[in-house]
UniProtKB/TrEMBL annotation:
InterPro entries linked to this entry: CheC-like_sf (IPR028976), Flag_FliM (IPR001689), FliN-like_C (IPR001543), SpoA-like_sf (IPR036429)
Keyword Zinc-finger listed: no
Name recorded for this polypeptide: Flagellar motor switch protein FliM
Pfam families, per the entry: FliM, FliMN_C
Species name: Shinella sedimenti
Signal peptide interval: none
PANTHER family in the cross-refs: FLAGELLAR MOTOR SWITCH PROTEIN FLIM, YOP PROTEINS TRANSLOCATION PROTEIN Q
Organism lineage string: Bacteria, Pseudomonadati, Pseudomonadota, Alphaproteobacteria, Hyphomicrobiales
Reported function: FliM is one of three proteins (FliG, FliN, FliM) that forms the rotor-mounted switch complex (C ring), located at the base of the basal body. This complex interacts with the CheY and CheZ chemotaxis proteins, in addition to contacting components of the motor that determine the direction of flagellar rotation.
Membrane topology: Peripheral membrane protein
Keyword Electron transport among UniProt keywords: no
Family recorded in the similarity comment: Belongs to the FliM family.
């Protein structure tokens, strides 16, 4: 007696399934939620940043986008700074993104440049010090976001390290295929117009009650911010490189050098050493020793303190 084959149950459309399980919302609902959150950023970030930084910052809502996490974030291209974050009792993973011109312009203004004289920076990967400043910007953005959804949590956001888009590693936990909404914000500092983005899972956004934070919760004092930024920049570690000029050698001699061979310095007496960081010369030094360690002693600089900071950061 033969057994009749059992027909496989038809699979449910993944889009329909995502809607039924609360992971995907309709465009009208997502649009309203994103616009409400954008209005919160527009209202509170400018005053916060202006009072803390001391120069005018314009922030406005620039629309939203929906799609899969991987497609949306990769579609932004390179020269972006990313920060993966979480907020207990609200969202286990959301992402903050700034384009590099925003951070570059922010750093230039922090170092005393006049906003109107700054040209629109070319997008590029950020230096370590610039990433440190990006991290502080992410902290302010997440602070406003936290107060906007404070009815859902009393915890503080947990922020990962700020990093360039080129260094992001692919994830294998399904995040890349999660339905998300990306809130796009435009930021104007002088003539420079840049952007930041907040990427939130739709399943989280659909459950959120977004309210404007109270002004008392929105900012630190300008002095506190300036001191914190200044300290952060000056504490950032920079790799220095010392170069000593050696006596010219023929190509034949160089090709025959072996371990243990000696090449004399090109100068007698005090040996000049150029010290640089990020390819920029900073100091003129002389070569020496301190106990068992070789050292260099600073004799002159290639500019003022502000010039050196600009060289290192750039």
């Amino acid at each position: 007696m033969s057994t009749a084959p059992v027909a496989a149950a038809p699979s449910m459309d993944p889009i329909v399934l995502a809607r039924l399980t609360g992971k995907l919302g309709d465009q009208e609902t997502i649009s309203k939620l994103c616009a409400t959150l954008g209005d919160v950023f527009s209202e509170f970030l400018p005053d916060m940043l202006e009072s803390e930084l001391g120069f005018e910052v314009a922030v406005s809502y620039a629309g939203f986008a929906t799609g899969k996490y991987g497609e949306l974030t990769e579609g932004l291209g390179g020269a972006m700074a990313f920060c993966d974050a979480s907020l207990r009792d609200w969202c286990e993973h959301f992402t903050l993104i700034c384009d590099s011109p925003l951070v570059i312009t922010l750093v230039e203004n922090m170092l005393g440049a006049v906003s109107d004289s700054i040209e629109d920076p070319q997008p590029r990967p950020l230096s370590k010090i610039e990433l440190d400043v990006a991290a502080m910007m992410f902290d302010r953005i997440s602070g406003v976001l936290k107060t906007a959804v404070s009815s859902a949590t009393s915890f503080e956001p947990l922020l990962g390290a700020a990093h360039n888009a080129e260094l992001r590693k692919p994830v294998e936990d399904g995040t890349q295929n999660e339905h998300v909404a990306m809130v796009n914000m435009a930021v104007g500092i002088g003539p420079v117009l840049s952007t930041f983005h907040v990427v939130i899972p739709q399943r989280t956004l659909l459950k959120s009650v977004i309210t404007a934070p109270k002004p008392a919760n929105a900012a630190k004092t300008r002095a506190e911010w300036s001191e914190q930024l200044s300290e952060q920049v000056r504490r950032s570690k920079v790799t220095l490189e010392a170069r000593i000029h050696l006596e010219p050698q023929t190509l034949d001699t160089i090709s025959r050098l072996q371990p243990g061979d000696i090449i004399p310095f090109n100068e007698a007496g005090d040996v000049r050493v150029d010290v640089n960081a990020n390819g920029r010369n900073l100091y003129v030094c002389e070569f020496g020793r301190s106990g068992a360690r070789y050292t260099v002693r600073v004799k002159d600089t290639y500019g003022s303190e502000d010039d050196i900071l600009q060289h290192i950061i750039g």
